[in-house]
């Protein structure tokens, strides 16, 4: 069924990679765009901030939130050939970081270049936090924002595109005894440099990208680093055993923590540690968004969403960009943004709400049959070979 509502004024939440490319694509389709960015810069999580939060685990709801999760030494885990947008390659600029796997500063500069090249800056309201987004009617959204905590503004938009990222709200491992363990605990969100862990025995929970990065960096200053992971398939400790530092060790999951500082692992071994770093990922978090329960976050699965973008009952006036992980992120964001822009400008037509909901239910059922945990709903991985052609076919029809 063809959508008859008119969409002209669109709010974009966030000016990271997703928000910047969404703004560009929406403007290309003749839509009026306003981008809300709570910081003073474009780039989102790629803007390094040496400050950390007052609560190192990120559990205190009243803490002052630091948006970025970049540690000082972080480099991309994708080569620069895969880091750029489709029509704006991640090239090499003289005098900058020209490594094939550049550091975070180079990615932030690339996003600044992108925003300037496509004149996106004029759409952005910097230092403006979105406090509330709620439905007025089926195809209208009330947006309340605050600039520098002084000026409140209330507006109505025809559509909202959520691009606030998902590397800000820490997920913490739940382990028996964690509340009485006496050592220092932080989430990788609040890790910047290794200095404060000098001469310590450190346990890192999680052996994904940040866990292995931080573990290797810490080996230069700590007595020992112990990685605790669900999977023993560590690229650092298994793929390259010859290059493994002498003071790094791999363990299964933690069974319990004790008041004397002991960390007990599932295989019966134990150590006494000084610090634990939770490299356990992040939660999707939309504290400003009120959909009356239509869109929820359940075990880190945002849904129901059609192809990770549109909630069937609210489409196309509400959409999300950049939720998938284990993905080629900038390309995914660009293709999703093209799809959203073409849908709002009526170049592309979504299936009926019933058909979209049935597709979502089928997707959930396939994942459940395959034994995939709900928290992996938005993982792309090998499925990118299927979803890229899908997005492209919709965008360019």
SSE diagram, text form:
Layout: E1 9-13, H1 17-28, E2 32-36, H2 80-83, H3 104-117, E3 124-125, E4 128-137, E5 140-147, E6 151-157, E7 159-162, E8 169-170, E9 184-187, E10 201-205, H4 209-218, E11 224-228, H5 235-239, E12 248-251, E13 254-257, E14 262-265, E15 270-272, E16 275-278, E17 282-283, E18 289-290, E19 296-298, E20 301-303, E21 318-320, H6 329-344, H7 353-369, H8 384-395
Parallel strand pairs: 1-2, 1-7, 2-3, 4-18, 7-21, 9-16, 10-11, 10-16, 11-12
Antiparallel strand pairs: 4-5, 5-6, 8-17, 13-14, 14-15, 19-20
Enumerate how many helices there are, as a single number. 8
pLDDT < 50 stretches: 238-242
Query: What class, by secondary structure content?
Result: alpha/beta
Q: N-to-C terminal Cα separation, in Å?
A: 17 Å
State the shape: globular
Going across the major beta sheet, what is the strand order? Answer: 3-2-1-7-21
Question: Can you give a write-up of this model?
Answer:
It is a single chain. The chain has about 400 residues and is of the alpha/beta class. The protein is built from eight helices and 21 strands. The strands form six sheets. The protein has a five-stranded parallel β-sheet, covered by helices on one side. The longest helix is centred in the C-terminal third of the chain and has 17 residues, at about 355-370. The radius of gyration is 22 Å and the shape is globular. It starts with 8 loop residues before the first strand and ends with a helix. Residues about 240 have low confidence and may be disordered.
Brief descriptors of the model:
single chain, 397 residues, alpha/beta, 5-stranded parallel sheet, 8 helices, 21 strands, 22% strand
């Amino acid at each position: 069924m063809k959508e008859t509502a008119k969409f002209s004024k669109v709010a974009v939440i966030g000016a990271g990679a997703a928000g910047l490319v969404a703004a560009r694509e929406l403007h290309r389709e003749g839509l009026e765009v306003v981008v809300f960015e709570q910081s003073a810069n474009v780039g989102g999580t790629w803007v390094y901030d040496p400050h950390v939060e007052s609560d190192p685990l990120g559990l205190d709801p009243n803490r002052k939130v630091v948006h970025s999760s970049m540690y000082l030494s972080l480099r991309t885990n994708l080569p620069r050939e895969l880091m750029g947008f489709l029509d704006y390659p991640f090239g090499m600029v003289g005098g900058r970081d020209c490594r094939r796997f550049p550091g975070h500063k180079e990615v932030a500069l690339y996003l600044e270049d992108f925003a300037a090249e496509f004149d996106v800056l004029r759409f952005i309201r910097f230092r403006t936090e979105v406090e509330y987004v709620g439905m007025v009617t089926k195809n209208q959204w009330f947006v309340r924002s605050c600039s520098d905590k002084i000026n409140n503004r209330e507006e109505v938009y025809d559509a909202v595109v959520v691009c606030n990222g998902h590397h800000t709200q820490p997920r913490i491992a739940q382990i028996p005894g964690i509340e009485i363990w006496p050592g220092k605990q932080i989430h990788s969100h609040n890790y910047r440099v290794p200095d404060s862990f000098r001469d310590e025995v450190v346990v890192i929970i999680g052996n994904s990208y940040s866990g292995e990065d931080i573990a290797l960096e810490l080996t230069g200053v700590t007595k020992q680093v112990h990685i605790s992971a669900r999977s023993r398939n560590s690229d650092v400790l298994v793929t390259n055993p010859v290059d493994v530092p002498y003071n790094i060790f791999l363990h299964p999951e933690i069974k319990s923590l004790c008041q004397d500082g002991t960390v007990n692992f599932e295989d019966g071994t134990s150590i006494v540690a000084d610090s634990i770093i939770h490299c356990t990922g992040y939660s999707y978090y939309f504290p400003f968004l009120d959909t009356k329960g239509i869109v929820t976050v359940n075990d880190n699965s945002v849904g129901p969403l059609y192809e990770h973008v549109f909630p069937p009952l609210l489409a196309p006036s509400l959409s999300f960009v950049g939720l998938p992980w284990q993905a080629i992120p900038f390309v995914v964001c660009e293709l999703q943004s093209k799809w959203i822009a073409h849908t709002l400008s009526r170049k592309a037509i979504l299936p009926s709400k019933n058909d979209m909901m049935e597709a979502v239910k089928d997707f959930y059922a396939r994942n459940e049959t395959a034994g995939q945990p709900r928290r992996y709903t938005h993982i792309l991985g090998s499925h990118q070979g299927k979803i890229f052609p899908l997005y492209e076919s919709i965008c360019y029809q």
